[in-house]
Amino acid sequence: MEDGEYVKNPANTVNRHGKDYAKYDADLIHSIVNTTSVLHVSFVPDPSDPTPVILPMIGQIGTYPPSSPSSPPAIYLHGYVTSRLMRLGASASSEGISVCVCATKVDGLVLALTPFSHSCNYRSAILHGRAYALDDSTEEGAQEKLWAMELVTNGVVARRWENTRVPPDGGELQSTRILKVEVESASAKVRDFGPKYDRKDLKREEVVEKVWTGVVPVQEVMLEPIPAESNKVGEVPGYLKEYVEERNAEAREYALKTASTEAPGRKKRED
């Protein structure tokens, strides 16, 4: 990474729509990962069998120790101790295993004059790196594992860790592994504007006057929290209400903004 951007290389360079869609800004890529509920992690479990495996997982990007700005950011993935990927990560060499992590958010359905020109507004990030399980048999590894568990928990709901029964007990720690992915390259693709049209179609009045075009904004919505049958707390905690409201407002604002943005290079049609 240089000057806040991931360096372009054959693995992360965006070829199709590279000019309009490609992004290498680290903060943007990290924000896509950290606001995506489910990440998809791909890897090859057996070098003798090239069949890839893709797993849905939860994870977050963070920097450890957080007090050291020079430490490179890494992806921390949460999983059960006996899962295949976690076992591979624990038995991997010092170089770790090669993985690819993907995060995608859909922000709108883009409806153009022809099916060929339909699209979606979206944000996607692809990150490549080497992964290994944190070794909690050492004091340093145990501290980083606990820090990562808090990071991932608060990635699900902000401030959730401090509002639960913590720290985890011995059984919980033994059954949980944290896979650390040291990011080697990354890029994002972002489409955030309205429909594109071919000039030939814009000149056809019978098409323009018949076909509705525009964007259907899409947002991930969190509904009102529903208490569990065993819940003894009278009201939904303020931190949880605040988190739900803020995330919904941010998603709505972004979806509406991109829906009303003109496509690059497109001039508004004059009546």
The backbone outline, from C-alpha atoms, is globular
Q: What profile does the largest beta sheet have?
A: 6 strands, antiparallel, barrel
H/I helix tally = 8
Note poorly predicted spans. Answer: 267-271
Mean pLDDT: 93
By oligomeric state, this entry counts as single chain
Strand content: 25-35%
In total, the number of strands is 8
N-to-C SSE series? Answer: HEHEEEHEEHHEHHEH
Question: How would you write the strand order of the largest sheet?
Answer: 2-3-4-7-6-5
Gyration radius over CA: 22 Å
Distance linking N and C termini: 48 Å
Q: Give the proportion of residues in helices.
A: 25-40%
Class of secondary structure makeup:
alpha+beta
Question: Can you describe this structure?
Answer:
This protein has eight helices and eight strands; from the N terminus they run αβαβββαββααβααβα. By secondary structure, it is of the alpha+beta class. The longest helix has 22 residues, at 238-259. The chain starts with 17 loop residues before the first helix and ends in a 12-residue tail after the last helix. Residues 267-271 have low confidence and may be disordered.
